[in-house]
Design goal:
4 helices; globular; mainly alpha
């Protein structure tokens, strides 16, 4: 028998599992990018574009999984997943970086792309 959640309940553990899946996808795709960089000698612009595509794809797959699990308001759960993906990404960057967090154009662009990728994944689930 499948355990049903209450409608007003926030599925924290499911979102954490979905977030973990998104970061596994990110790690695998970044490892593939590193291999391609080593073998093909990709340029800096190509690598920067590929990293953004990887972030959006990982947020998309996380949003897709969140939308599949939650039967109602799939776009909302995808959006929540995309924003959570970005928040963890920004926190890890802040923890690893030396210069601190800068709120420039790339910060907000990455936020919008991750949120949009997650929302699109939720809508298409």
């Amino acid at each position: 028998m499948e355990k049903k959640t209450n409608q007003g309940e926030f599925p924290v553990f499911f979102l954490l599992k979905t977030l973990l899946f998104s970061y596994i996808v990110t790690g695998a795709l970044l490892a593939l990018l590193a291999f391609l960089l080593y073998r093909l000698g990709l340029g800096e612009k190509a690598v920067a574009a590929a990293i953004i595509v990887i972030y959006v794809a990982a947020a998309f797959f996380g949003g897709f999984m969140a939308g599949k699990k939650q039967k109602t308001r799939k776009f909302f759960w995808g959006l929540v997943m995309g924003i959570a993906y970005f928040v963890v990404l920004a926190a890890a960057s802040l923890a690893m970086g030396e210069g601190g967090l800068t709120f420039g154009n790339s910060f907000f662009t990455t936020l919008v792309l991750c949120a949009g990728g997650g929302m699109l994944g939720g809508m298409l689930s």
